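Field: COMPLEX_INPUT
Field: COMPONENT_COUNT = two
Field: RESIDUE_TOTAL = 1041
Field: MODE = joint
Values follow.
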Amino acid sequence: MIIDYVGVKEINGSLIVMDGVKGVSNEEIVDICIDNTTTRQGRVVQIEGEKIVIQVFEGTRRISLTNTKTRLTGHPMEMPLSPEIIGRVLDGAGRPIDGLGDIFPVKKENINGTPINPVSRIYPKNYINTGISTIDTLMTLIRGQKLPIFSGSGMKHNDLAVQIVRQAKISGADNTNFGIVFAAMGVQKDVAEYFKKSFEESGVLSRVVMLLNLSNDPIIERTLTPRCALTIAEYLAFELDMHILVIMTDMTSYAEALREFSSSKGEIPGRKGFPGYLYSDLASLYERAGMIKGHSGSVTQIPILTMPNDDITHPIPDLTGYITEGQIVLDRSLQGQGLYPPVSVLPSLSRLMKDGIGEGYTRSDHQTLANQLFASYAKVIDARSLASVIGEEELSPTDKKYIEFGKLFESKFVNQGFNENRNIEQSLDLGWELLSALPRAELDRVDDALLDKYYKT
Amino acid sequence: MKNSNVIYGINGPVVTVKNADCFEMMEMVYVGEQKLVGEIIGITNEFTTIQVYEETTGLKPGDSVTGTGAPMNVLLGPGIIDNIFDGIERPLKAIEKQSGAFINRGAQVSSLDDKKLWNVTIKVKVGDQLEGGQIYAVLPETPIIEHRLMVHPDLSGEVIKVMPDGEYRIFDTVVVIRDCNGIDHNLTLCQKWPIRTSRPVKERLASSLPLITGQRIIDTLFPIAKGGTAAIPGGFGTGKTMTQHQLAKWCDADIIIYVGCGERGNEMSQVLEEFSELIDPKSQRPMTDRTVLIANTSNMPVAAREASIYTGITLGEYYRDMGYHVAMMADSTSRWAEALREISGRLEEMPAEEGFPAYLPSRLAEFYERSGRAKVLSGGEGSVTLIGAVSPQGSDFSEPVTQNTKRFTRCFWALDKSLAYARHYPAINWMQSYSEYFNDLDTWFRNNLGSDFIEYRNKISALLQEESSLMEIVKLIGSDVLPDDQKLIIETAKVIRVGFLQQNAFHADDTYVPLEKQKLMMKTILHLYAKSRDIVAKNIPLSKILKFGLFDKLTKMKYDIPNSKTEIFDDYIKEIDEKLAAIS
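Field: COMPLEX_OUTPUT
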């Protein structure tokens, strides 16, 4: 027997409260029919006896205390999945909006997923060649990794993401088993269009699943978007054995949507008003990257987030950095100098890099070169700050060499054309060439054998 | 059943039951049809509050809640080592067999393998009087760890029946004892212990033995004692996990308990893979033969994350009671504190600093106080060393978790972002870090390495201090204007920083350095410094000394001198003497 519950008891932001509801289960999805015309979906977020709190995805506008009929669906939020989903455009809650009709589901999965058993994971080791010198050499992207781009408003994170997608070569992946899941959360329409156009130009559009929750779309739906996207990604990777690159932009909008939901629910806020469970919530998304035993597919995540006020200690980048396996940090002053991609090398990092590079993967000198570049560039920063106090003229000859090296490093190594695809050999050789601008004795991370081979006088 | 009731309300991982008077505080309960594990965390005359250790999606009001009559406990017995558990001691390998690569809820698996036969040797005979904690049987758990079965600390009595030596499963009775009330107790190969209660010991001992880690900056500058406590705070990317891994791999404890508390899944798979491939230099066996892993990754339920720390320390205490030295690494205690905050928020408790509950300091203190070196009930001596990573929000050490941890730990290895940016690992900042164990350990160092070890260490840290104040000046006016004796300090400190403090975890020799070599390295550096200072004092310019390349040579000696060939240091000293004699 299906019961329609008429009316609601309270409305508060995106939440409605109903009383006298029997047999409801936690996280269950409900259909809310308004004035017998439109139907919206909601999710049960709290139960107290027969009183329940429902979060309405499309917002509570037009809902009154009397004009609704609510029906329990009996299951949590599920995503219909089928191989045909590749190439489709969906809204933030996973419903098709490309006019090609519904997805005929082969199976349905709870969008919250279930945690991967740590013993079933394969430790990611295969590197992805992105053709970008800084990333390949210094913060290598590994298949199955989650490597976010920390950016700021107005910086070229979208270009960088597009370039990665266009140039990324995953060993063992070809057109039949490579796919992209793109989740847009709170981005402007033209940004979504830009991604779509770029996917089209690089000929991958037919391999992309797009989920679009634009900035004017319901905020609560935004909290579902990455979950739907990752459910699709897991399906494609672990059931159809595809290599999936998930791009999620912008995680800051997602976290803000979560804050809005949390505060309307009257929860005790943590740092900067974000809910205390922000870490666990972000982790439940980011941890869905990886590879598992018995399947050849992989989920690699590149979340993009704009740091509010370029502040890396803001809770969103801060907590993200603690969960993800490194980060690519973009820097406004580099962008101001006209350098692209404006990757700030020192705070950027890839934690999985050490096992995915070197002999058998890239080249045996890779790790040493990367260490030396980091160490030397850190000294450039010291030399620059000294120069800003005493003037460049007064610097010691060694420090002057560092200033020189810094300029070359930024203009030749960091700077790279949007369409320039450098292979790993080129990038590594370029690194050695630049290091040769420094006195040999300064290269204290490199042993003599390597120096003899690569140091050019 | 008497202590059973039904769900009234659900809010995230917190479930409430109305009008129940049958539950005890901290009792373990099963919730819902899938029998999700939960714990009673609050009782009022109207509502009982339960924190559920698993995802609560799909629970309904009216679903059953069944008490177990006992607090949250873990099963202690053979099979713990070389295993990987979740936060409430469920073996992840067995769960994988049951539900595949993704963890389903309500997995009902025995914590320890109840089918496996263990080769037991009984150590008591009929008529023996047994006290709590006494050993009644032993069995080889791994080739290097002998598992000693101890009487539950609350039990004692006379042995009335003994089974012959042989193969038994963990729930088989091997000894029967009769207590003073005439009640018989069957002793099996396992026992239960509540995770939030510390196991008793006979007597606490002073922390006078060092935990040798083979990491130069730790062993020489900031040593930790067996049974000591240490905090490793550091922002993301500063190498907390790497440092913990290095300690787990190389420290000289008998047993390692590694708790991945709210950390990355891929990291745990890395630990699993690396540890099974690594060979322990002392026993020539794989590291996994002495390691227990507890993995509650960040996406696994938050309440179990809170419990994982206690599960870890309880397992540690159990092995300590057998007379082993245990080291437990918790990565990271901040995630544990955040789990506390998250649950506290769900309970609508009044928050204190930064939203953390007001009882955060007392919980931290309780946890760190379970460390220590002690005379154990079974007669021997054992210890639990606690090394907790802290992930400060925004890399700001003034936040509550770091500050409170600082109060209850005696070693503080502060990781520094700028060192990490320059890829100086381990990125332990020598100015901010400290160890309070110097006085406790000096006798040991003096007896085992000679008093010159302590002398070298003091000189090294004095040089680093001086360098730091000189760098203040250099930052303002550049190093060229300094007089030669101060330049010499800067040059020497550079050798110390790059050649001594910096250590390469990926280098076969440098990843673990014996104390003897650490001492000789310090000796050689200080020798060069002393000789050079004499020359500079004679107004011979420093640049003449630098031309010999001796400083660069010492910087690389960590790679050039193998750990087994410490006699090469004599050649270095000789070379220094000869070269410098030429100009003085």
